[in-house]
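hey so i finally got around to running the thing on that chain from the lab meeting. sorry it took forever, my laptop kept dying and i had to restart like 3 times. anyway pasting the input first so we r on the same page abt which one it is
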Amino acid sequence: MAAVMWFRRDLRLEDNVALKHALEGSDELFLLFHVNPDQFLGEGSINQAAFFKSVEIFREELKEKDATLHILYGDLKDCFIKLKKEFPGWSDVYINRDEKGYGLERDKLAGGLFKELGIKAHGYHDHHIHSAQEIKTNSGTYYKVFTPYFNKWKELQKPNVVDVKFDSKKMVEQPVFTEDENQFQSFLKRQVPVEDMQLGTQEAHRLLNDFVENHLSDYKEARDYPLKDATSHLSKHLRAGEISIRTVYDRVNRAESSIGKQTFIQELAWRDFYNMVYATHPDQKDVSINPSFRQVEWDNNEQNFGKWKEGQTGFPIVDAAMRQLKETGWMHNRLRMVTASFLTKDLLIDWKWGEKYFQETLNDYDPASNIGGWQWAASTGTDGVPYFRVFNPTTQSEKFDKNGSFIKKYVPELKSIDNKKIHEPSKLTAEEQAMFGVVIGEEYPGPIVSHKRSRELAIQAFEKSKKKTENMKAESPK
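ok and heres what got predicted. didnt touch it at all, straight out
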């Protein structure tokens, strides 16, 4: 029997559920990756460039095993009709399903096409430890709060690592779609360079082993300090499927017991939780989940948004974080919360603006986790931070970058400032500015807003939205 293994965000030959079944259920296997131009983010997107770099690395890994990852480029229906015409013998397709967002809609479209073509589709759960449908309340509803969700999550049996016996003799080398390949290569040449980004399954395993052996036990305390770099950095590998979430959980779970281990496993549960939230709120990328805060009157000042993106807000920890993102395609998790809070509460800019910018820029962009994180910080999501809790960027800086070392790394114009004074350079006297060699307003900007005043305005905006929503409910016909 001939079959197609359709890779998407599962770019690995190990611990891959669909690939295991495809190998076991076929005599001939066509390895496929489909590129849909309608999904492109733009040629300046680090997210996009990093993902397709992972595709390139995966193709090289297959070549080393005498196998080919065939590229189809263009409209999904046209591509699969073309494949059926050129490779008429295939009768089955194997995929790891998506449960939400673009991937779910794509799978629905593909499912209808496969029926028309007489192709049997085999779909499997692979991307998360527990699927979006698996964990519900005792009354059969979905959880809205993480803690009770996690209490049930941690009691469930976890899936085992899947053993895949790759057999290159089964792989189909022909046909090769030359035009599609040429279009794909042309597309790759237009992407921003990400050569220094360490990607691929081998690098993912190196990171996992290093994290478990050297950082896991201290994870709970160390993860909040950006300069310590004590997080796992596995997110960019998980989003492309260069390593399986089951493999990560299994390796961590076998480590010695520690508070850090418990905390990291809880983070894996958050990943499942946000996947469930997206699956049950399919419009959450465009609509605030909490109806009370859909009426927030955002300021949406484009000039301030530009300064936030460029790291020119006058708040050193925010600027350092945004410059780290722009330079590396990654941002420390604590700083993701700080910068998101600053954008939505200090600048009163719609969280969707920030979410979209992160989508373009993060090398580990995962829709469910990113949207969930932004709605959490903006107080618009399920189990979000209370709207009256607003991160103070200066306090966060003093607490998690006490000596200003992280700030000095990414905001070099402040590197000569005394550690204690670096958190609020706008308070430097003229004499101090001269002594440290930085003029506020010239070499480094003054604060673009007053945090104290912005906090008051944000709380007022959220309370106004809440009251407006309540009035709308009261006035609506019963």
